């Protein structure tokens, strides 16, 4: 950060405090602070970058939209979803104006707004936006593509959060069919959809289907990330519950034991990367401007 501060001082003296290049450096300083979880320090820097871009480039310029999105993402990191929503809405409008309504960048911005609304339990609004992003991705990337699979997975997660488990099953199955074709049925994204599907089956008390989904997901994650992966804790635990519902108590105890062992290993190592954490970064990352 000291190097950034020295560079900022030099650039301000050379170009003036309200030059767009100064705003870019300020934005990147804020992104670094946000990555370090120093959100209170990042906030005024993002706001300063936005102000400079608005004054010098206009409030519809792509760089202003990027700084706006970064500020919204900071609020999301703080779990202040109410504050994030209007900023994401404005950023989405600016992206659509810049790229056109049918564009993958617009679909990505739509998805992020949908996720925040889902966090606020505004499920109808969220589902409408997820479906809009899905349609855009189908037009831009093709119906059998990674972005479309991601959209079906997102929609399944939203249905699951809303308690619409039958609808969640349908969406997760669509995601799985596409992911099998484009990424293979041994990929971590495929396992991620299996875990979501398994959770829906659990809520529907379809224990055999839940066992099949979780067992397949566990096997994929163990092969891909190893036996101590953070992503194993939840599916192992739920797999044990489903097995016990079927009277398969010996298998249930073994999976429960493995879940506890993974949890303890993670605690000793101070955490790890999970699919949930990776997903959050993918949908709410701050943007460094070059």
Topology:
Blueprint: H1 2-15, H2 20-35, H3 39-56, H4 62-77, H5 81-99, H6 104-119, H7 123-141, H8 146-161, H9 165-182, H10 188-203, H11 207-225, H12 233-245, H13 249-269, H14 275-284
InterPro entries: Kinesin_light, TPR-like_helical_dom_sf, TPR_rpt
Pfam families: TPR_12
Subcellular location: Cytoplasm, Cytoskeleton
Summarize the structure.
The chain is 80% helix and 0% strand. It contains 14 helices and no strands. α2 runs parallel beside α4.
Textual characterization of the structure:
The chain is mostly helical. Helix content is 80%, strand content 0%. The chain contains 14 helices and no strands. The longest helix is centred in the last third of the chain and has 21 residues, at 249-269. The chain is globular and about 75 Å long.
For the largest beta-sheet, the strand count, sense and barrel status come to: none
CA-atom Rg in angstroms = 22 Å
- Uncertain residue ranges: 272-284
Helix content: over 70%
**β-strand amount:** under 5%
Instruction: Give a count of the beta strands, DSSP E runs of length 2 or more.
Output: 0
Beginning-to-end CA distance, first to last residue: 17 Å
Average pLDDT reading: 91
Number of helices: 14
Principal-axis shape: globular
Query: What order do the SSEs take from the amino end to the carboxyl end, as H and E?
Result: HHHHHHHHHHHHHH
Structural class: mainly alpha
